[in-house]
Automatic annotation (TrEMBL):
Organism lineage: Bacteria, Bacillati, Actinomycetota, Actinomycetes, Kitasatosporales
Record's protein name: Sugar phosphate isomerase/epimerase family protein
Domain Xylose isomerase-like TIM barrel: 19-230
Gene source species: Streptomyces ovatisporus
Gene Ontology molecular function terms on file: isomerase activity
Keyword annotations: Isomerase
Length: 286
């Protein structure tokens, strides 16, 4: 598995500095937080997009994801959401990113949220496919568990709509990692990992200093697709299950350090060698 980290941990840092950090510390990819307060967002001009591509190419680093904030399960009309997702998909296409991250953001009724998210993802998945990008629904907020995300994605039934497994949210929701993995595997794009002190205190910690069961999660990922593994036996099957098995074996672990939301925590650049070494140790031991 290849390693990436999210620019959520280096808020506002210029692209040239971010890609150099990745290259210098042995990370092959970056998850780009796509927000107007960041250097990369859907409002970039074509010239600026070309400059971003050149910076990544020069450093030998991949744009893993355009991490947007569209809420596909949110109540209200579809057009604003479609416009936001379309802008993220086009940005991902221009930058050569593999994925676009979206949030659920559902309201009080989980049934309505499921239906809304499935309808919107099904409508946008063909465009994602045409642009060579995959839409990933993150396990987050109204759909924090693997069961929640898999329920929506099974209803969508399109290989260009998948899952981003944020392991903290499924764990905080009380879902066993084995269950999360089994449910998400047919749809899995990649996995966000991090460490926190407890389910109540989500202040970011350096890897290995918190309580998230990362060793077990990495083991589940690296053994995916073995004969005795249930991956591919659930979900929509068809074209999604083989992709999930391949993604698990050759996919990405992305370190998410929420410095933007916790400005008091140590700076990420000084932690990156330890992050890299810890993740590589987990992979070797698994």
């Amino acid at each position: 598995m290849r390693l990436a980290f999210s620019t959520l941990g280096i808020p506002g840092l210029p692209v040239s500095d971010a890609v150099q950090l990745a290259a210098d510390n042995g990370f092959e990819g970056l998850e780009l937080r796509a927000h107007p307060e960041e250097p990369v967002h859907p409002g970039l001009s074509l010239d600026d997009r070309v400059d971003v591509v050149e910076e990544f190419k020069a450093a030998g680093v991949e744009v893993l994801t355009v991490a947007g904030y569209a809420k596909v399960a949110a109540p209200g009309g579809d057009e604003a959401v479609f416009g936001e997702v379309r802008g993220l998909l086009e940005l991902a296409r221009d930058l050569g990113a593999s994925y676009v991250r979206v949030f659920p953001g559902g309201g009080d009724s989980i049934e309505d949220a499921d239906a809304t998210a499935a309808r919107r993802l099904a409508a946008m998945a063909p465009l994602a496919a045409d642009l060579g990008v995959r839409l990933l629904l993150e396990t987050h907020d109204s759909h924090s568990t693997g069961e929640d995300a898999a329920r929506v994605l099974a209803a969508v039934g399109h290989a260009s709509a998948g899952a981003l497994w944020d392991v903290m949210h499924t764990w905080r929701a009380g879902e066993d990692p084995g269950a999360s993995h089994r449910l998400l595997a047919p749809f899995l794009g990649y996995v966000q990992v991090k460490d926190v002190a407890s389910a109540e205190d989500t202040t970011p910690l350096p890897p290995g200093q918190g309580v998230l069961p990362l060793h077990r999660i990495v083991g589940l990922l690296t053994h995916a697709g073995e004969a005795d593994d249930p991956i591919g036996a659930v979900g929509s099957g068809g074209s999604a299950a083989p992709a999930a098995r391949a993604g698990a074996a050759r996919g990405w672990l992305c370190w998410e350090y929420e410095k933007r939301w916790y400005p008091e925590v140590p700076e990420l650049p000084g932690l990156l060698p330890g992050v890299r070494d810890h993740l590589k140790t987990l992979l070797a031991e698994s």
